[in-house]
Design a protein that fits this description.
alpha/beta; nine-stranded mixed sheet; two-stranded antiparallel ribbon; 17 helices
Length: about 500
């Protein structure tokens, strides 16, 4: 077992700017009537501020419940040019996935427990990729004498993307997520605050903070919520330092990180890259004489579409997106899907193993028992009721992580088990993969809801799993027509995690 590093808890989320109304307003001494009046005043104040907001420019870092004209909404997520924007792989902003099973709480049922597992909001490219993207742009601008047609925008385009940081658009995604979570589960959220954890990367912690802003704002506007609201909410942050035990960030399994299995995803993507990019690269070079672009350059230009889009506060679709056709975006989405499937899911022998620790934590929360795990859990945290509470009044949990780790967790849970090994020579649609694509599973601000529900006619609690608003059928535990398994059947189906999921193969 690797050495465990220290972790910490945010008692006060360090937010650069306060939200439009102070999170420190105290209702502790207020009578019930005064509480009601205060909330009414806040509702009208918020409406006034929304109207005023259309005449003033706010700092980009300020994230509020008031929405500017945007491609993104609280209820549906990102919906501008969905024919392409919903095919940007893990770089798609969150959007509602159509569900064959209604995501509404079934009639005669009440939700009794909810775990949300969320990816951070939209971010700038990683440091290594932002350098590559900038070089690609400069290569074109330096070698092409005249940029015309759909490429003309490059004449004035300046590369200004940062590295690794959450963008203002991504911040608002997470505020929206907190609002949506509050509204969806009002029967619980009116009376409870989630227990919140975040992996230690700055953008993940900030995403958790933004989520709490949305949750808090929605709670203030709900005249039926049970005050007081002790905002800011504590956030338990788990270190991502090398050697840290962290169920929200992989890094301990040596043979997964550096062994031969670590090349599987890249090899699979390379094969598909060699099939779908040649005609695209040829067209680009024909239209950009002198650029001499490669297949890798083509992918960089395609990546610049989503990254420039989410660099816009309103999510305005970037001109880079128009350089490629609808069918080419579908091919790109599949390229990214191969990376997730063969990197962190069933296509990698140790992919699902990286999600075992969190799955065992989920079992503990759902069964109200101590965590039983000897993989990536941090027992310093998980053995303490203050940093890993289970049972009692704790019915809401919110964890914030990364796309790769969520992919592994879904696989450790047996989700998407109907997906056959993906072809690396021909494109398979979401229907053919039984709902498995990178854009459907882990877009920016992705969220999974794991619900326990009590239903009329059922003595035992039932379980549903909803990912980006799509109810999963839960074949592994005999899910019914509404996507429900009994709690016992669901827990029994998680044998892979309970048996440590091949963790012994990580070392030696």
């Amino acid at each position: 077992m690797a050495t465990r590093k220290s972790n910490y808890v945010y008692e006060r989320a360090p937010i650069e700017d306060e939200v439009l109304y102070s999170p420190r307003v105290s209702f502790v001494r207020a009578s019930g009537l005064w509480l009601h009046i205060c909330k009414r005043v806040i509702m009208f104040s918020a409406l006034s501020l929304f109207l005023i907001g259309s005449f003033f420019t706010y700092k980009a870092s300020r994230t509020t419940i008031a929405q500017s004209v945007s491609c993104d909404s609280i209820s549906q997520g990102y919906d501008c040019q969905p024919e392409i924007s919903h095919f940007w792989g893990q770089y798609s902003p969150y959007y509602t996935i159509a569900s064959e099973i209604s995501a509404n709480v079934p009639e005669g049922c009440d939700v009794s427990f909810v775990q949300i597992l969320s990816r951070h909001g939209a971010r700038d490219p990683t440091a290594s990729k932002t350098a590559v993207y900038n070089a690609t742009v400069q290569k074109i601008k330096s070698n092409v004498s005249k940029l015309t047609g759909p490429y003309a925008f490059l004449t004035k385009y300046e590369y200004t993307l940062g590295a690794d940081n959450l963008t203002p658009f991504g911040q608002q995604e997470m505020v929206n997520s907190g609002i949506k979570y509050y509204r969806r589960y009002e029967s619980l959220t009116r009376n409870s605050i989630p227990f919140i954890r975040a992996s230690g990367e700055a953008r993940v912690v900030e995403s958790a903070q933004n989520f709490t802003q949305g949750y808090h704002q929605a709670r203030l506007l709900d005249v039926n919520s049970a005050g007081p609201d002790a905002y800011p909410y504590p956030i338990t942050v788990i270190s991502e330092a090398v050697g840290s035990n962290n169920t929200l960030d992989h890094g301990l399994c040596n043979n997964f990180e550096d062994g031969p299995d670590s090349d599987i995803a890249g090899n699979s993507q390379s094969i598909w890259l060699g099939i779908f990019t040649p005609p695209i690269t040829a067209r680009l070079n024909a239209n950009l004489p002198g650029a001499n672009l490669t297949a890798s350059d083509t992918i960089s230009l395609m990546d610049l579409c989503p990254f420039n889009t989410i660099a816009s506060i309103a999510g305005e679709v970037s001109p880079f997106c128009g350089l490629f056709t609808e069918s080419e975006w579908h091919q790109y989405d599949y390229y990214e899907t191969l990376g997730k499937y063969y990197g962190y899911s069933y296509g990698n022998p140790l992919g699902p193993t990286q999600g075992v620790g969190f799955t065992n934590e989920l079992i503990a929360r759902m069964t109200e028992k101590p965590v039983q795990d000897h993989t990536s859990t941090n027992h310093t945290l998980d053995d303490s009721p203050s940093t890993f509470p289970v049972g009692g009044s704790h019915v809401l949990y919110a964890d914030f992580s990364h796309d790769n780790d969520m992919t592994s967790i879904f696989s450790a849970m047996g989700l998407y088990n109907a997906t056959r090994p993906l072809s690396d020579t021909s494109l398979e649609t979401a229907a053919q993969t039984h709902g498995y694509t990178a854009s459907w599973t882990v877009p920016f601000a992705a969220r999974a809801y794991i619900e326990k529900i009590k239903c009329d006619g059922h003595e035992e609690e039932l379980v549903r799993v909803i990912i980006n608003d799509r109810v999963l059928p839960l074949q592994t535990c005999g899910g019914d027509s509404l996507g429900r398994c009994t709690l016992r059947a669901f827990i029994d189906s998680l044998t892979f995690a309970k048996d440590s999921g091949s963790w012994n193969r990580c070392f030696g």
